[in-house]
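Bench notes, afternoon.
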Amino acid sequence: MTLAPTRRAVVLLAAGFPLALLPALAGASLAWGWAVALAATVAAVAVDLVLGAPLQRMALEARVPSALYVGERDTLRLEVRMPGSRITEVEIVCDLDASLLPQPAVRVRAGPGATPLDIPLVPCRRGTATVQAAWLRWRGPFGLLRWSQSRPLSLEVPVLPNLRAVRGAALRFFGSRQFLSGLKVERYLGDGSEFESLREHTAGLDPRFVDWKASARHHKLMSREYRAERNHPMVVALDTGHLMAEPLAGIPKLDHAINASLLLTYVALKTGDRVGLFAFDERVRLFAEPQGGVGAFARLQRQSAAIAYSHAETNFTLGLLELGLRLRRRSLVVVLTDFVDTVTAELMVENLARLGRGHLVIFVALRDVAIAALAAAEPRDLETLNRAVTAHEMVREREVVLSRLRRHGVHCIDGPPASISTQLINRYLDVKRRELL
């Protein structure tokens, strides 16, 4: 604990120097005025010291949530209890580690009862966030002395992928026709090629679906009903290299990719497909065999939460070749990554094209909307003109890479983090509807 005079105390003491000069300038009879001012100042400081010192025994309780989610705001609940019956204004600031956004100091008027206070916790990276300590500052009743005290907390809370956003987005897809196809029997013509049941043929049904053998047995026209095929293998491949560790819209690109992949995983498992997980940078970090059932989502959630950030260069040749060797049948492969220009993306394009010869590949890249805004901005001076030209060149090279991938049969998605999940789900459902796998 530290004790220091406030600015008010310094100004009050400085005002006493002119009073000390009055006896010499105007006469010795004014000496009592300086003595009275000095005594009053000393008495005020003594009152502050006597009444403010016991507050160092104030009680502080802290509670953190059981888990935090990347990009989502939560709160640290503090409760302050003051000794005695006096109400005092206390300033509190929490010492947070680098995985949490710093928060400004908060003032609260605390009394003898429990005074609640909420401190925002906004995680920007997965892992374990730590609330290291709480710093308390308060003043005496005259505001002449200020106490500072550190209360160690050492509270740890796990930071997980943003499952709240995944649940919310999944609910939005629940009512769609494409989402339900493959999950239960549908009455829509042309959905899927997996045989579901027979029904009596009526006007308006496709005559190509008439089952002549069944019609002969039942002595009336019978038509086949189909549903979307299920039990397809799908692997989500996450690039964990240094480009994916860079922040985009406040959180790392890798976390945007994990959130989108978890939503896709949930939808795919609901529709009956089997989902696996693959993570790589300079080497393979994780491989989970495709498994079916909604219960597999918890396993994939834990595995994706444990994927670490990396500062290594991504080796697409090693990673995608290893993935191709591990896949024993034709699968849907969703690759979530990012690139800078045509030169650095050359090996990525070659290996994605090779992987696409035996599998259906969806390529997902995270676009920085700030670069597109710079390219479209009106150049008002030479500096903004240079920025616009550079940004336009980056956008053009990005389109060149995506065009090359499309020519090789790779399905490409390039969008900002806010819309990448929706685009990915729509593309997955379109693949199932068209039965491209």
